[in-house]
Write a sequence for this structure.
C-alpha cells in the first residue's frame, strides 16, 4: 500500500468543555475558563464575539485572578468601582491557574486581545488558590497547594521565593488565601477530614512549619469551595454533604490574624439536591451552585430559605459561579458555568428583596358577589401588572376585578343560571388599531351573549343550535375576529364579530358564517381552533374533546362566505336574537387525525410559520402540517416526566413572544395614538381561549425573506426553521411552564391541579430585545400571573420577582449535553452568506441524557450553534448514522440539504428523523427542521400487555451498541444493528409509510455484539456484494454476506445466513469499534481487498486486509457466494493506555483513533504495518465517539471531531504549519517552565 494523505499533525479548532472557572472584571467583562482556554465575554454587549486564548496546555483552568481587580467575590476588601474603571483604561494582568500550572496573561484595554506573559509555570503540587500579594514591585503570587502548603512565587520569571507548610500535613480539597501581603496572610483550607483549618504562613515555628490556629467542624463531607467577605466577616463553605455553612470569623489577615477566637456557625443552608460545588458571598447575600444544576440565592433574613433559583443548564450541574460587586443601586451580575459548556448571566437588582420565598405568592382576590365563581379569565395585562380579572358565576352574572375591587358588569337572565361558558377577547375596529375587550357567555339553550366589558348595554344575543353550548372559541384571522360556539349534535356555529366605535356608543356587528359539523363521537364538542389563510381561502384546524384534529377548508368567494349564509349583517341596534342556522349544509372535515391526543381531548391548537402545534392531556405537543389537503404529523415533543396534562403552547421564537398587551383603559389611549398591539390570554376549563393575530400576506412575505425550504401543501410554504415554544400545563398539583429547548422549569405554582377554571397571563419583559435574544423570551413567558378558582375563592399568583426587568437572563455561550456524549455523526455542511469562506458543518450528537442535539459549527471562527433538540429517547443514545436525501452531493457547496437521521440506544429503541437544513440570511446562521419518520422498540408488544406487572420479563433490556446502513433504496433503508443480547439484526425503514420492521436476526455471537460496520464491493461485471463485519466481547471479528438477503424482493422470505463465513480472533477482550474500507485496485480481476481496522478494551489497535474472491462459475450462475482469505494482520499492542473507544478510517491508509486516555492519534497503514504519524492531547474527557472527514472547498484538508465529556473539533494538517506555529510560540516566550521546590528554605 502507499499513503494517500500527508496528515501528520492535529490542532484544536473548536472546544466545548465544562466551564470550570468564572470571574468578573468590573461590570464590563466576564472571564471564563473552558478546559485550557481562557475566554473574555462582554457583559454589556453579549452579541459581540468573545476573545479566547489557549493558556494552560493540558491543564484545565480552575481559577482566574485579575491583578488590578484586587477584590473579587471571594474576598471583598476595596472599591470594586475603581477596578471597573481600571479594567477598561489600562492593561490587566491575569493569573490563570489549574492543575499544576499557572500562567500570567495580559488583557489589552477594551478587552480586544489576550497575550501570554512569560512561560507556563508548572509546579510539583496542585494549585488550589492564587492571590496577588502587594508591597513588591514584581509580580508576586501566593499559591495555596493541595498538601496544605503555601508557595510565594514570582510569576513572570517563574522563580519560587519561599515555601511554607502547615504542621498538620493532609490533603486539601479547597483552599482560600486571604491577606494583603505574605507576612500577614491567612490560609483557610478544607481538609479531606471534612474540617476547615486556618493558619498563617508567615508565622512559622523553629521547625519551619506553622500551627493550626482555628479549626471549624460541622461538615460531614469534603469541602469543595470557600468564600470570604471582609465587610461582613463571613466565611462560607460548600460541601459534598449538600449543605452550605456560613461562619462568623471576623476580619482575617493583616493585623487581625485568624479573626475571632471562637468562630460560630451562623447558618446551615440545605436546599440543593446534590453536591454543592461553588459558593460565593456578596453584601448580605449568599450564592451557591452544585451538581443539581441550580444556583441558589439564599434569603438571609428568611432564616436560611431559598430566595431565588437561577436555572439554565442541562444535566451535569453548575461547575463555576461568579458574582460582580458594583456601586449602590446598580445591583450585581450573577454568572454560572455548567458541565454542558454553557455560560449564563443574570442581573440581580438590589431593590429586589432576597427574603422573598421561592415559589409564587398566592393572593385571595376576596370575591364578594352573589353566587359561586365558575369561570375565570384575565384581560388587559401591561406594564408588568395584572390588568383585570373577569369571572362568571352560577347565577349568570359577570364580574370584573380591577383596582382591588369587584364590580358587576353584566347580569344574565334565568337561562344563564346554573350553567354558562365564558370567553373574553380583544376585538379591533375594522381598519383601525384600537378596539374593545369583548365577553361572550353561552348557556344551556343555545344562546350566546356578546358584549363589551366597558359598555355591556351594547351587547347582542346570538342564537346557536338549540341545546347546550359546550364551549366558545375566539379566533383571529387576518385582523378579523371570529366567534365559534360548539353546540348540540356536533354543530359549531360561527360569527364574524365587528366593532364600530364612536364617542357616544359602541356598535357590535355579527356576520353569520357557515357552521362546522364535528364527526360523530362520544364527546362531540369543540375544544380548540385556529385558522391559516391560503391562496384558495382559509384552512381551519380544530380539536375536539375526543382528542382528534380536524381540517376544514373554507373557499374564498364561494361556499362558506357570509354572502352564502343567507342571514346578512346583524347590529346590536336591532336588539334581536340572531339565529345561526342557515339553509346551507355545514362544512365537513376534509381530513382528520382521530384520537391522536387520547380520550382526554385536545386542549389547544396554535399556528406558527405554517405549522400547527396541538397539545392535549396525553402529555404531548404534536407539530402538524398540511400536505395536499391532508394533516400530517411532523414531530411529537414531550415535557418533563410527570407533566402529562398539557393545556397550551406559548411561542418564544425570534418573531416575539405571545405576550398580551393592553388593558381595559387601552382603548382611549389607542384612539389617540392610532395604534394597537397583540392580545392573548391562556385559559383553562376545556377551552383554549388563546387569541393570536395572524399577519397579513404582506407581512408573511417579509417573514419568509431569507428562509429556504421546500413547498409543501396547498398554498403553505414550508419553512426550514422551527418555532421556539414553551409548554403550559399541570405537573401533579402544580401549574407549570416548561421550556423544552433548555429542558428547564420556568414557573411552578401550587394551585391544586388542573380540574378547575384558570387563566394565565405572561408578562412582557421590556428590558430584553426578543429579536436578538430569543432564549430570553422563554424566561419572560415564565414570569406571569396565574388566576384560578379554588373552593369558591378566586386566587391570583404573581411571580416572586415583582419587576420583570432583568429576570430572564442572558446566554453568553450555549451548552450542549450536561452528561457524557456517546456518539457523534456528521450529516453535511451548508454555505453561509460569504460562500466558501463561511462553511458550517452540521453535526448530531447523542448522549447519556437521552437527548439528540443538532449542532452547527463554523471552524473558521469557532462558533457553535444549537439548531434543534430531540428528546424522544427514553434511555441513553449510543449510536447514530445519517444518509443524504436529494439536493446536491455531499462534496458540493450548498445552502440547504435534507437527510435521514437514525438513532439507537438503550431500551432497544430505534428512531428515524428527516432533517431539513438551511441557512437563515436574516440572522446569519443555519437552521434546522426536524420531522419524525418512525420509531421502533423490541418490547413494544410486551409493553402493551395488560397486567404486565404480574408477569416476569424473561429477556433483559436490550441495548443497541452500533449501527450501519447496509442499503439506501428509494423506498426503504435497511439498517444493521449490533445488540447487547448477542444478536445482529436487520431493520427495514420505510419513509413513506413511517414504519420500521425487523426483517432478520442472528444470535451467532452468543454474547454482546459491540460494533458493526458495512462495506460494498464489486466484481468486474459490475455486480455488488454487501459485506457486514461484526465484533463481540470475545475479541473476534465476523464477516457476513448479506447480498442474497438484500436482493430478496419479499421481506417475508428473507432468509439470512445462519453463520458468518469468515471469523478471526483479533483482540484479547471486547472489540469496541470497527472501521472498514475497500482498497481500490489492490485485487485481481475477480478479487476485492478490504481493510478492517479495530480497537479493543485491551488498548490494542489492529488492521486486517481481507481478500474476497469470486469464482467464474458462480459469477455465470449469478449466485452470491464469496471466499475470503486473510492477507495480513498488524497490531499495535499499546496504541492507547486505555480501551480504544473509537476508530475512524479516513482512507485505507490513514486511521484516527481515540481513547479515555485523552489522546487522539493518527496512524498510517502500509504494506509494512501500522506506524504512528502523530498525536494530540484532547481536552475531552472520557472520549467515547469519533468521526473524521475530508474537508470541502479549495482548502481541503481533513477534520476530526471527538466527543465525551464535551466536544472537540480538530484540524488535520501536514505538520509544516504546526512547526511554524511552535516556532512562533517559542519566540514569544510561551515555553513551559518547571518549578523545583527541592532545597527551598522557608523565609522567616
Amino acid at each position: 500500500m502507499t499513503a494517500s494523505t500527508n496528515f501528520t499533525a492535529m490542532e484544536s479548532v473548536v472546544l466545548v468543555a465544562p466551564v470550570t472557572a468564572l470571574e468578573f472584571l468590573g461590570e464590563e467583562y466576564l472571564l471564563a475558563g473552558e478546559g485550557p482556554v481562557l475566554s473574555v465575554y462582554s457583559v454589556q454587549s453579549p452579541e459581540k464575539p468573545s476573545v479566547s486564548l489557549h493558556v494552560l496546555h493540558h491543564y484545565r483552568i480552575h481559577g482566574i485572578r485579575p491583578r488590578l481587580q484586587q477584590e473579587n467575590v471571594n474576598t471583598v476588601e476595596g472599591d470594586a468601582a475603581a477596578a471597573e474603571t481600571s479594567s477598561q483604561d489600562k492593561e490587566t494582568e491575569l493569573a490563570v491557574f489549574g492543575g499544576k500550572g499557572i500562567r500570567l496573561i495580559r488583557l489589552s484595554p477594551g478587552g480586544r486581545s489576550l497575550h501570554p506573559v512569560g512561560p507556563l509555570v508548572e509546579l510539583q503540587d496542585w494549585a488550589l488558590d492564587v492571590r496577588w500579594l502587594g508591597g513588591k514591585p514584581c509580580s508576586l503570587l501566593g499559591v495555596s497547594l493541595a498538601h496544605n502548603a503555601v508557595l510565594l512565587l514570582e510569576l513572570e520569571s517563574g522563580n519560587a521565593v519561599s515555601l511554607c507548610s502547615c504542621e498538620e500535613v493532609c490533603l486539601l480539597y479547597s483552599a482560600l488565601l486571604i491577606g494583603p501581603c505574605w507576612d500577614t496572610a491567612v490560609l483557610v483550607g478544607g481538609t479531606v477530614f471534612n474540617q476547615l483549618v486556618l493558619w498563617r504562613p508567615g508565622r512559622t515555628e523553629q521547625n519551619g512549619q506553622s500551627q493550626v490556629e482555628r479549626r471549624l467542624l460541622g461538615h460531614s463531607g469534603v469541602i469543595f469551595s470557600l468564600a470570604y467577605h471582609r465587610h461582613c466577616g463571613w466565611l462560607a463553605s460548600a460541601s459534598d454533604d449538600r449543605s452550605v455553612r456560613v461562619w462568623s470569623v471576623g476580619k482575617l489577615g493583616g493585623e487581625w490574624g485568624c479573626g475571632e477566637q471562637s468562630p460560630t456557625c451562623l447558618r446551615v443552608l440545605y436546599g440543593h439536591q446534590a453536591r454543592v460545588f461553588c459558593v460565593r458571598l456578596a453584601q448580605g447575600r449568599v450564592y451557591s451552585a452544585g451538581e443539581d444544576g441550580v444556583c441558589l440565592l439564599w434569603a438571609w433574613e428568611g432564616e436560611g430559605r431559598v430566595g431565588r433559583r437561577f436555572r439554565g443548564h442541562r444535566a451535569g450541574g453548575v461547575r463555576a459561579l461568579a458574582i460582580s460587586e458594583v456601586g449602590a443601586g446598580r445591583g450585581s451580575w450573577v454568572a454560572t458555568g455548567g458541565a454542558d459548556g454553557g455560560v449564563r448571566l443574570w442581573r440581580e437588582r438590589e431593590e429586589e428583596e432576597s427574603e422573598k420565598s421561592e415559589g409564587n405568592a398566592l393572593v385571595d382576590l376576596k370575591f364578594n358577589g352573589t353566587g359561586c365563581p365558575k369561570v375565570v379569565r384575565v384581560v388587559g395585562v401591561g406594564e408588568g401588572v395584572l390588568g383585570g380579572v373577569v369571572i362568571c358565576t352560577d347565577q349568570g352574572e359577570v364580574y370584573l376585578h380591577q383596582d382591588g375591587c369587584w364590580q358587576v358588569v353584566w347580569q344574565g337572565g334565568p337561562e344563564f343560571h346554573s350553567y354558562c361558558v365564558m370567553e373574553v377577547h380583544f376585538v379591533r375596529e375594522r381598519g383601525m388599531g384600537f378596539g374593545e375587550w369583548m365577553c361572550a357567555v353561552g348557556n344551556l339553550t343555545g344562546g350566546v351573549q356578546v358584549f363589551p366589558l366597558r359598555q355591556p348595554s351594547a351587547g347582542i344575543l346570538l342564537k346557536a343550535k338549540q341545546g347546550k353550548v359546550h364551549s366558545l372559541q375566539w379566533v383571529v384571522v387576518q385582523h378579523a375576529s371570529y366567534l365559534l360556539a360548539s353546540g348540540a349534535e356536533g354543530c359549531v356555529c360561527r360569527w364574524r364579530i365587528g366593532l364600530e366605535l364612536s364617542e357616544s356608543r359602541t356598535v357590535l356587528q355579527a356576520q353569520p358564517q357557515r357552521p362546522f359539523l364535528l364527526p360523530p363521537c362520544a364527546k362531540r364538542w369543540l375544544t380548540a381552533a385556529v385558522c391559516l389563510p391560503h391562496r384558495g381561502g382559509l384552512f381551519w384546524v380544530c380539536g375536539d374533546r375526543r382528542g382528534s384534529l380536524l381540517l376544514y377548508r373554507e373557499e374564498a368567494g364561494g361556499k362558506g362566505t357570509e354572502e352564502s349564509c343567507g342571514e346578512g349583517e346583524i347590529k346590536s341596534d336591532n336588539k334581536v336574537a340572531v339565529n345561526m342556522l342557515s339553509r346551507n349544509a355545514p362544512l365537513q372535515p376534509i381530513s382528520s387525525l382521530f384520537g391522536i391526543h387520547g380520550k382526554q381531548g385536545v386542549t389547544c391548537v396554535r399556528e406558527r410559520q405554517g405549522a400547527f402545534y396541538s397539545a392535549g392531556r396525553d402529555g404531548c405537543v404534536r407539530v402538524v402540517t398540511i400536505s395536499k389537503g391532508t394533516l400530517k404529523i411532523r414531530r411529537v415533543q414531550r415535557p418533563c416526566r410527570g407533566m402529562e396534562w398539557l393545556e397550551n403552547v406559548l411561542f418564544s421564537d425570534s418573531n416575539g413572544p405571545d405576550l398580551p398587551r393592553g388593558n381595559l383603559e387601552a382603548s382611549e389611549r389607542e384612539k389617540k395614538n392610532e395604534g394597537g398591539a397583540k392580545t392573548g390570554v391562556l385559559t383553562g376549563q376545556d377551552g383554549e381561549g388563546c387569541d393570536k393575530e395572524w399577519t397579513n400576506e404582506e407581512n408573511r412575505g417579509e417573514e419568509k425573506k431569507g428562509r429556504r425550504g421546500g413547498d409543501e401543501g396547498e398554498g403553505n410554504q414550508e419553512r426550514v426553521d422551527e418555532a421556539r415554544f414553551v409548554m403550559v400545563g399541570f405537573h401533579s398539583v402544580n401549574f407549570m411552564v416548561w421550556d423544552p429547548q433548555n429542558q428547564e422549569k420556568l414557573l411552578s405554582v401550587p394551585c391544586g391541579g388542573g380540574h378547575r377554571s384558570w387563566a394565565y397571563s405572561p408578562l412582557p419583559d421590556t428590558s430584553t430585545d426578543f429579536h436578538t435574544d430569543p432564549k430570553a423570551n422563554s424566561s419572560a413567558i415564565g414570569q406571569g400571573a396565574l388566576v384560578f378558582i379554588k373552593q369558591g375563592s378566586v386566587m391570583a399568583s404573581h411571580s416572586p420577582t415583582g419587576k420583570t426587568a432583568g429576570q430572564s437572563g442572558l446566554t453568553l455561550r450555549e451548552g450542549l449535553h450536561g452528561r457524557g456524549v456517546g456518539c457523534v455523526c456528521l450529516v453535511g455542511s451548508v454555505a453561509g452568506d460569504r460562500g466558501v469562506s463561511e462553511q458550517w458543518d452540521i453535526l448530531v450528537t447523542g448522549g447519556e441524557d437521552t437527548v439528540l442535539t443538532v449542532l452547527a459549527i463554523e471552524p473558521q471562527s469557532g462558533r457553535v450553534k444549537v439548531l434543534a433538540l430531540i428528546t424522544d429517547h427514553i434511555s441513553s443514545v449510543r449510536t447514530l448514522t445519517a444518509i443524504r436525501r436529494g439536493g446536491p452531493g455531499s462534496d458540493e457547496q450548498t445552502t440547504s440539504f435534507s437527510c435521514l437521521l437514525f438513532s439507537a440506544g438503550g431500551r432497544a429503541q430505534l428512531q428515524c428523523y428527516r432533517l431539513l437544513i438551511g441557512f437563515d440570511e436574516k440572522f446569519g446562521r443555519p437552521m434546522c427542521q426536524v420531522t419524525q419518520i418512525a420509531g421502533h422498540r423490541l418490547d413494544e408488544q410486551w409493553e402493551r400487555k395488560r397486567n404486565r406487572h404480574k408477569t416476569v420479563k424473561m429477556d433483559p433490556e436490550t441495548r443497541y451498541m452500533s449501527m450501519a446502513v447496509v442499503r439506501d433504496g428509494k423506498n426503504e433503508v435497511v439498517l444493521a444493528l449490533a445488540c447487547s443480547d448477542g444478536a445482529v439484526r436487520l431493520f427495514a425503514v420505510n419513509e413513506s409509510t413511517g414504519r420500521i420492521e425487523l426483517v432478520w436476526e442472528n444470535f451467532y455471537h452468543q454474547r454482546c455484539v459491540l460494533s458493526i460496520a458495512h462495506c460494498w464491493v464489486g466484481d468486474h461485471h459490475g455486480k455488488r456484494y454487501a459485506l457486514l463485519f461484526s465484533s463481540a466481547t470475545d475479541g473476534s471479528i465476523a464477516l457476513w454476506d448479506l447480498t442474497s438477503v438484500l436482493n430478496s424482493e419479499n421481506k417475508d422470505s428473507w432468509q439470512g445466513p445462519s453463520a458468518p463465513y469468515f471469523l478471526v480472533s483479533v483482540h484479547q477482550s471486547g472489540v469496541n469499534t470497527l472501521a472498514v474500507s475497500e482498497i481500490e485496485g489492490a485485487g485481481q480481476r475477480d478479487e476485492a481487498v478490504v481493510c478492517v481496522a479495530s480497537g479493543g478494551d485491551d488498548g490494542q489497535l489492529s488492521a486486517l486486509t481481507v481478500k474476497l474472491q469470486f469464482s467464474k462459475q458462480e459469477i455465470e450462475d449469478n449466485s452470491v457466494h464469496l471466499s475470503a482469505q486473510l492477507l495480513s494482520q498488524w497490531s499495535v499492542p499499546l496504541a492507547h493506555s486505555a480501551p480504544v473507544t473509537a476508530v475512524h478510517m479516513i482512507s485505507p491508509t490513514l486511521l484516527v483513533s481515540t481513547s479515555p486516555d485523552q489522546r487522539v492519534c493518527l496512524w498510517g497503514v502500509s504494506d509494512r504495518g501500522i506506524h504512528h504519524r502523530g498525536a494530540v492531547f484532547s481536552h475531552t474527557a472520557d472520549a467515547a465517539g469519533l468521526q473524521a472527514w475530508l474537508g470541502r472547498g479549495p482548502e481541503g484538508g481533513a477534520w476530526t471531531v471527538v466527543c465525551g465529556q464535551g466536544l472537540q473539533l480538530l484540524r488535520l494538517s501536514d505538520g509544516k504549519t504546526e512547526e511554524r506555529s511552535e516556532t512562533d510560540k517559542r519566540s514569544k516566550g510561551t515555553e513551559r517552565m518547571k518549578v523545583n521546590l527541592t532545597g527551598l528554605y522557608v523565609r522567616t
Remarks:
- The radius of gyration is 34 Å.
- Residues 816-1003 form one domain.
- Residues 1216-1227 form the longest helix (12 residues).
- The chain has a mean pLDDT of 80.
